[in-house]
Design a protein that fits this description.
- It is built from eight helices and no strands.
- With 192 residues, the protein is mostly helical.
- Among the domains are: 48 residues, no CATH class; 60 residues.
- Helix 7 runs antiparallel to helix 8.
- The longest helix is centred in the C-terminal third of the chain and has 28 residues.
- The radius of gyration is 48 Å and the shape is elongated.
- It starts with 22 loop residues before the first helix and ends with a helix.
- The model has no long low-confidence stretch (mean pLDDT 78).
Length: 192
């Protein structure tokens, strides 16, 4: 509520012993306050009953609200993981074709062969299961030691060296190390 500002009346200089007469100003201010309180405000008085009645008439039911909040029917199916995977495959194929277009004829043929779905699937599975780095490392170490010892025996005693021994030692070292690695992982999982 804004209050009106009234100019301050000019004060006359008072002499010693003379009193200031403010009763006139006080009476004017009181009359003004009474007039403000008795005067009707700009907004009409609204009772609680009239507010309740207006709310009841204008209120919407929950069903009406749900109907208005429903989104418009979608023309496409909702987003799914299958669609995401399909988009990834399409992008991969497009990039692969772009790269293959820049290769020479010989490299392009090899790339098309290597990137066939069957060969890619086998390669992915093999990379996760077969090519264990620890197995390859220990297979190589055992092969080196075994072949060195067998070559020394073959040279010393004059026995012909069997080259199949190289492959057998590597496979046995690989299997041994892979079994140890997987066994250690199983034990660590059980402990934690």
């Amino acid at each position: 509520m804004s209050q009106e500002r009234h100019p301050i009346p000019e004060h006359k200089e008072l002499k010693k012993g003379q009193e200031l007469d403010v009763s006139e100003e006080v009476s004017k201010n009181l009359e003004r306050l009474e007039a403000m309180e008795s005067a009707p405000e700009n907004e009409p008085e609204v009772s609680a009953e009239t507010i309740r009645k207006s709310i009841e008439t204008e209120a919407k039911s929950a069903e009406q609200i749900k109907e208005t909040e429903k989104p418009a029917e979608q023309t496409d199916k909702p987003y799914s993981v299958h669609m995401h995977a399909k988009l990834k495959v399409e992008a991969y194929q497009k990039i692969l074709k772009d790269i293959q277009a820049r290769l020479s004829t010989k490299d392009r043929r090899f790339s098309r062969f290597v990137h066939k779905p069957i060969i890619e699937t086998v390669s992915e599975v093999a990379s996760k299961t077969v090519a264990r780095p620890v197995g390859i490392a220990w297979g190589s170490i055992i092969t080196f030691i075994g072949v060195t010892i067998s070559l020394l025996y073959a040279y010393r005693y004059g026995i012909p060296f069997n080259y199949l021994l190289f492959i057998l030692l590597f496979i046995s070292g690989y299997i041994f190390a892979t079994v140890l690695e997987l066994g250690a992982k199983v034990l660590i999982r059980r402990k934690s």
